[in-house]
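Dihydroorotate dehydrogenase (quinone)
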Amino acid sequence: MYKLVKPLFFQMNPEQAHNNVTSGLKVFTKIWGSNAILKSLYAVEDPRLQTTVFGLTFKNPVGLAAGFDKNADYIEQMSKLGFGFIEIGTVTPKPQPGNDKPRMFRLVNDEALINRMGFNNQGADVAAGRLKHLKEKNGVIIGGNIGKNKVTPNEEAVNDYIYCFNSLFDYVDYFVVNVSSPNTPGLRDLQEKEPLKHILNTLQELNMAKASPKPILLKIAPDLTDSQLDDIVEIVQDTKIAGVIATNTTISREGLKSDPNLVKETGGVSGKPLTKRSTEVIKYLSDKSNKAFPIIGVGGIHSAADAIEKLNAGASLVQVYTGFIYQGPGLVAEICKGILKGK
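Structure:
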């Protein structure tokens, strides 16, 4: 079905296509019987897929990465497509429009996207309100990906993360600290050892004061050097956060085959060009830490084989986004079936 409509969507601006697809899905799921149709087409239910990671039990290890549902608008709809977990955000304390449009570009020859969205979202309070009134999530785990507002100086960034943490705490199952997007000026500077430890230690202190603390993960860039990855291992162990998401988008343009005018657009690249590097980062972290903490693998997963490669490299869970756009909603079921074949 997706193959029939994909050419139509790919004629549209990528951001407009995203809005049309999500709005259409919302309308479709209000039709009687539609939810049963979606589940029968896309959901793979099997107890062997159940995975327990950082104290949470996922019905399967395939999640929707942050960026697709920034404002917790589509959880009920996306949960019908077979995901084991959905990560909302990136959410910031105050609403912000993000960068000027156009800000997302398809690199079709590379099966990739460039985006410079800039954390466009309606703010932490709006996301929390939607989650509070969520009617049905079909057993799907929900993550909250949190960041800082563009206008917040880096030396005050910790306050933005605190605000988002407090706003979402009652409504998400785990948190992701995003300091790795290339689309907010200066944000990646927070990946340096001292500022990062300050943010994570502060959040962990708040977290451990709660009656039931939530797992906190760190999302990192694929562009870190081995010595920086060594620092990440040390920081995760020192701060005792739950794990790492590897990786965010890349600023590298190496090996891209698409229109040079598109390739030179600023922003982060996601999709197939990231497959190898994100797997390398997963393996490095897993080996270096001796599997001391869980890793969620994301970046360039366009097939069951891609997902299984990341799981074999040391990931406990995987997430998709760009592969989901190129391959369609059947990708989740394909990955789940591929995992079951290996069991």
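The first strand starts at residue 51 and ends at 53.
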